[in-house]
Amino acid sequence: MIIVLKPNQKQETIKEFIQRLTSQYEVQVNTWVGTHSTVLGLIGDTTGIDSEYVAAQDFVESVKRVQEPYKKANRKFHPDDTVITLPGGQTIGGSSLALIAGPCSVESEEQICQVAQRVKASGATFLRGGAFKPRTSPYAFQGMKAEGLELLREAKKLTGLPIVTEIMSMEHIGLFEDVDIIQVGARNMQNFELLKQLGKLRRPILLKRGLANTIEELLMSAEYIMAEGNEQVILCERGIRTYETMTRNTLDISAVPVIKRLSHLPVVVDPSHASGVNWLIEPLAVAAAAVGADGLIIEVHNDPSHALCDGAQSITPDQFDSLAKKVRKVSQTVCEL
Ligand code: PEP
Ligand code: MN
Asked: 303-319 pLDDT, tens per residue?
């Protein structure tokens, strides 16, 4: 249930009203204070609450029941866009386009440091790199694990770029202390125990859409994290499985404006896993910027033909440089429209 209050209400009145609701009903009240109004979002069992009685209070503007199963992720609960700000000041969400770039997997100190320096010079704002890799085959390279995380820390020290890397199990959380944004991969989008545990942290989580999941399921997974108190969730569209075989997955470009309409959370697009082909990364990145994505996560490798993982979809630092220039122009133009 959403209760919009009339402007300029006394703090006391609001506090007392919330107190009344929480003592009489099994509900939790989320308060969103905007410049022109205050919105109370009620989560829990609201069936016993008489909307007409609430609407009759002289400080209440309107009352609406929320049909969608996601509440904290719902734009109705939080009309403004969420902007996630890291301790170093970097942001995801809002008017600037975040560029997360780096190799699929960390392979060596030389590789990650070289790529980090190059993408930073081209304007990347975050460094990506997998240390724990979810691979279809148990015989494929599984990532450098703890050593990979150590190399990411070194690249961060060298460049100042915050790091984004995937967690596959809560068993490894101790190793993730210096990780700025923890990624939940497509294959773990509905690993609800993992999501609940990550919800107890107070660190941004980049949640990727599952290979065969709907937008509503993605929002429900975000809700799992938020329900535990961690509201810093970034959603990622990375392509879904369709009958098309020309590309690795099919980029659901409409997911970006759809999610942004339904939710206040930032949305980033991963054209690398969506397409699986290096020449498609730039046009898809441009398209993502054009539809209003808050950021891009792109695989960049210094030597794609020898990459241990996802070489075919990796672009070179030079190609990233050209892409970064184009997407920034598109994003600025979209902002000015
Ligand atoms: C990745 O980002 O390296 C990755 C494995 O992506 P996804 O979970 O989207 O397949
Ligand atoms: Mn990859």
From this structure: 999 999 999 999 999 99
186: CA distance to ligand 1 center in Å?
Answer: 6
Asked if residue 248 has its Cβ within 6 Å of ligand 1, the reply is: no
Ligand 1 atom nearest the C-alpha of 270 is: 9
Residue 247: left (phi > 0), alpha (psi -120 to 50), or beta?
beta
Those residues whose C-beta lies under 8 Å from the C-beta of residue 175, and which sit 6 or more positions away, are: 145, 146, 149
* Residue 42 near residue 28, CB atoms below 8 Å: yes
Q: Going from the N-terminus, what domains does the chain have, and what CATH number goes with each?
A: 2-64 (3.30.70.1140), 84-336 (3.20.20.70)
Enumerate residue ranges in the chain where pLDDT < 70: none
- pLDDT for 8: 87
For position 23, what pLDDT does the model report? Answer: 95
pLDDT tens track for 185-218: 999 999 999 999 999 999 999 999 999 999 999 9
Is 134 near ligand 1, meaning CB less than 6 Å away?
yes
Nearest CA to ligand 1 atom 6: 185
Q: What is residue 202's predicted lDDT score, i.e. its pLDDT?
A: 96
How far is Cα 207 from Cα 218, in angstroms, rounded to an integer?
8
Whether residue 322 contacts residue 99, with contact meaning beta carbons closer than 8 Å, is answered with no
Cβ 76 under 6 angstroms from ligand 1: no
Query: What's the pLDDT at 245?
Result: 97
Residue of minimum CA distance from atom 10 in ligand 1: 186
**Sequence-ordered list of residues with C-beta below 8 angstroms from that of 211, at least 6 positions apart, any chain:** 186, 187, 240, 241, 249
Q: Look up tokens 């695989």; give the residue.
A: 299
Tell me, what's the pLDDT at 37? 84
Dist CA 205 CA 203 (whole Å)? 6
Q: What is the distance between the alpha carbons of residues 289 and 331, in angstroms, rounded to a whole number?
A: 5
